[in-house]
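To: structure subgroup
Subject: Chain for Friday's discussion

All,

I'm putting the inputs and outputs inline so they're searchable in the archive.
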Amino acid sequence: MTIHTDIDSIRLSGPSGREALGGLRQSADFRRLKLLQSPTDFCNQMFLLLGRNLAVATSMLPPAKRQEGIITFLCCRVLDAHEDLHADGATSARNILAAMEYLTGKIATPPPAPVYEGQRETDRLEALLADRLPWLRQALEALPRAQQERVTKLLTAIAVEMANDRARERFGGQGNLAEY
């Protein structure tokens, strides 16, 4: 699956570029997002909504690096959903690890998406992304093997640190900041 962001074709200079960049700050249409049937369209829209200005920078990367970056970013946002949207640290830690294990192919069944969707739009977007985990796994599995391995290694390291912090009822740990 190749994710082509709408930002790929945006000219960043002139009035149309400014309008396009302004569009990165529009509110999400959750009804429309929930109705999307294409994993590619869903991942594309989620990246534009969650990545915002990062989508502009990512558009400047070579296509292969862009794909890897987009998928890595979305996978990390799923981990963040499980970190932020569960009531207790133990549940959060368990689901962070389960999401990582599902995305990396270690387990066959995804963890349930967080029930609490948060107050902020970004929390609600992350909860929706967590609910569509099979689509994100499909995108990860479509990457070339070397890219899958890089994403898997990074995702595993981040998930372990996040889970350890949440199990201790901490957020944004200082354990291994270089990896985190």
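Points worth raising on Friday:
Confidence is low (pLDDT under 50) at residues 7-19, 176-180.
The longest helix spans residues 145-167.

D.
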